[in-house]
Design goal:
The structure is a single chain. By secondary structure, the chain is mainly beta. Helices cover 10% and strands 28% of the residues. The chain folds into 2 domains: 2-59, no CATH class; 72-115, N-terminal domain of TfIIb (Single Sheet), CATH 2.20.25.10. The protein has helices spanning 38-41, 52-59; strands at residues 2-3, 20-21, 26-28, 35-37, 44-45, 72-75, 85-91, 101-106, 112-115. Strand 8 and strand 9 form a beta hairpin. The longest helix is centred in the middle third of the chain and has 8 residues, at 52-59. It starts with a strand and ends with a strand.
């Protein structure tokens, strides 16, 4: 298949609506009945790359990076530096019927301990 730089070959030239393949010979606009020959469309493809950041930007959703994330803390002695406070987060790493994995990070030396 050929990659088309003209991204509009699947859309109506008049109203911009997406064309539907109503027959073997023509793609037709369901709104205004514009027709385009399937010979113009055959063998072409469009590739899009949409990231989660693009979706958040379009929907007006802010990311965690824009704010301050406060982690839960626990009293636990660090074997590396002797500090007695860890921050922790939990994540579901395996299937839903198994427990969460807890990640502990020392607030002083940033050493990490993982518990399943």
């Amino acid at each position: 298949m050929a990659f088309s730089r003209d991204r509009d070959f699947l859309f109506c030239g008049f109203c911009g609506n997406m064309l539907t393949l109503s027959s073997v010979k023509y793609a037709t606009c369901p709104l205004c009945s514009y027709k385009r020959s399937t010979k113009e469309i055959a063998g072409k493809e469009i590739k899009y790359q949409v990231t989660s950041q693009d979706i958040r930007r379009e929907l007006g959703i802010s990311t965690f990076g824009e704010g301050t994330l406060q982690l839960a803390t626990i009293s636990r002695k660090c074997e590396k530096c002797g500090n007695d406070e860890f921050e922790y987060t939990r994540k579901q790493m395996r299937s839903a019927d198994e427990g969460q994995t807890t990640f502990y990070t020392c607030t002083k030396c940033r050493d990490t301990i993982t518990e399943n």
